[in-house]
Amino acid sequence: MNKYQPVIGLEIHVELKTKSKMSCQCSAEYFGKKPNTNTCPACLALPGALPVPNRKALEWCIKIGKALNCKINLKTKFDRKHYFYPDIPKGYQISQYDEPVAVKGKLGKFGITRVHMEEDTGKLIHTGEDSLVDFNRSGVPLVEIVTEPDFNNSDEVKEFLQQLHIIIRYLDVSDADMEKGSMRMEPNISLKLAGTRGLPNYKVEVKNINSFNFVKRAIDFEIKRQTELLEKGETPAQETRGYDEKTMKTVSQRSKEEAHDYRYFPEPDIPPMVFDQTYIDSIELPELPSKRKERFVKELGLTEADAAILTQDNETAKFFEEVLKKTKTAPQIVANLIVNKKLPTSLTPDEFAKKAEASAKPRETNQGDLSTAILSVLGANAEAVANFKGGKESALMFLVGQVMKEMKGQADPQLVKDALVAEISKP
Predict the structure, then answer these.
(1) What is the gyration radius of the CA atoms in the chain, in angstroms?
(2) Would you call 427 exposed, middle or buried from its count of C-beta atoms within 10 A (0-12, 13-18, 19+)?
């Protein structure tokens, strides 16, 4: 048994892909642009420039909050978060403090503390002895997702972040492209004696990591480093550290600030916002990956493993469903062709459907085996039979999938479908 128990929380920053920035009309598309060409008086904090909040960014922040099962606050406001750094020209960041957009959510077993809106900073570029500032990114809409300190190891963190990444992509509010920095992750790590209650009296934050594997390695390194310090009777310093990808170690950057160090106060140039519940309800979510996976298993008869792979990417899941509209081939067979890369998804759904039908032509169906399989499936799936009798066509497709599994794919799906209908229709 380990002497120390890791206590890990996360802060995740997601850049939204709105057309304009958070508080001005400059384009939010800054990547690859010539430095300091995508700016205006508001981006550069010139005297007299006033912020005007981006409505779409706020709606998308609410959407993220709803997808993470949060309570959406009907009243929210912006605050000034003061700190002095070359990439933040105003000397403060427009963020949210005590009245964020969303609070008290859940993703799986892990708690979400808050989801709030803020603006991104400029970008520092270090060249030898010089540091240059590019303000093209300054003011891009940024959503910060803060979790509870519910994680006990790096594997839990990595799995959570992968699930969050999929959800963000499904919502279509961000590219969440970590190589471009549009999703950045910051774990807070500390250790306490195993079996004790409460939180440790310090925490170490590792800033701006843009890879799931790097997050895992940074956490594992910190657990080892902090364990060694505690074993020597030392309390690890409360500080902000960075992760060095080459050495696979974290390095100290600065002492970690507390909330009062930022001198938060309400943003005087943006009045508080009050929403009514009708407006909140009007912001709809798409079918999220967990629900889609459940539907693929229950209604289409896919295996849990194949359903999980297909729903990891929204475009792949959409392609799969488009192919099903074009073919009578059993869903599980189509899923196998996609999951096992037996046919390229660069084909159109029509082309894929035709090739699927050609490749799925079975040997002659053994009628005796088919009858046995149908009776077995109907006996084990009374609820699906009742649903089909009640007019739910998807229940029949589920039963077809189950029979095809029993037949190991060696049956004509149309023959299976007809035989099922005939058997179910018997008085």
Answers:
(1) 27
(2) exposed
Residue 413 has pLDDT above 90, yes or no: no
How many Cα atoms sit within 13 Å of 157 on the Cβ side? 31
Both 271 and 315 in a single domain?
no
Whether 54 contacts 142, CB under 8 Å: no
Share of residues in the chain with pLDDT > 90 (%)? 79
User: In the chain, how many domains are there?
Assistant: 2
Residues 222, 100 within the same domain: yes
Mark 239-276 as b/e (b = at least 16 C-beta within 10 Å). Answer: bbbbbeeeeebbeeeeebeeeeebebeebeebeeeebe
pTM as predicted: 0.85
219: helix, strand or coil? helix
Q: What mean pLDDT value characterizes the chain?
A: 93
Say yes or no: 61 and 89 in one domain. Answer: yes
CB 183 within 8 A of CB 13: yes
Q: Structural domain of residue 295, as residue ranges?
A: 289-424
Amino acid at position 375, single letter: L
Amino acid at 225: R
332 lies in the same domain as 243: no
